[in-house]
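== Folding the chain ==

***
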Amino acid sequence: MGVKEAAHTPSDNRVLDGGSAGPMMPRLVLGARLRRLREEQQISREAAGHLIRASRSKISRLEGGRHGFKMRDVADLLTLYGVTDEAERATLLTLAEESNTPAWWRYYNDVVPTWMQAYLGAEQAASLIRCFEVQRVPGLLQTPDYARASIRLAHPGARAEEIERRVGLRMARQRILHRRPAAQFWAVIDEAALRRPVGGISTMRAQLRHLIEICQLPQVTVQVMPFVAGGYAAEGGPVTILRLPGGQLPDMVFLEQLTTALYPDKPTEIECYWDVMNRLVVEAESPDETPTILHRILQDT
């Protein structure tokens, strides 16, 4: 099964205007470059962090594109890494400046936790998104009512206004599936998530009908992991992998948890998650069977 990569184009939507990834692409490009320079000089993250009065973990976040850059810190790191070419320094310092521009999700800043900011920027820039979900329909495929019910479960103490803000954010994210060219989205969903009536029977039936419709789009591939498959490769929980355009940046692995997220970024870790994802698509039912399976679940609901 082939998956075509799509180039990133800015959205013309009011919320996503001005380049939908915001500062994320400059952060990722600069972070990847700084990591290569540090490794070429065989300098530890601890030593680099000491130079800019920061911790090893902050260097890791900077190199992973999960933090904005201070111009002074970048200049000091470039000197430590032996970068003397003025043109290269100027280019990287420009990226540092761009890394602090307002993010596309600033409109929803009140409901975006710090640990999700890097993911939101990368998601809007991605050419390919692969995910596996166990408990819920993937956020990018949710209807507003299903999203609202799911968010209420995750934030039981939230006021109605906050719930609607979170629903708005989730719906805004879905525009990447309808832009030109669209991001390619490939999801494997556990059958349990499709049979659990989140929000009640009526909401779940509407969600299933939406899945039947949207999986017909050429940019969307949906597979179902049936109960009869038994155990499978990703029993540890949901996984999302983003591939960014250009071929120069590492893929991003995103593991969302209850109150935080993990971003495994070692090449061996990323390779491991790709291996799991590729095994899942073999173990799951064929995409051609998805409409039939969804219709059957709809009849049972």
In short: The chain has two domains: 24-98, 104-300. The chain has a mean pLDDT of 90. The first strand starts at residue 128 and ends at 133. The longest helix spans residues 24-40.
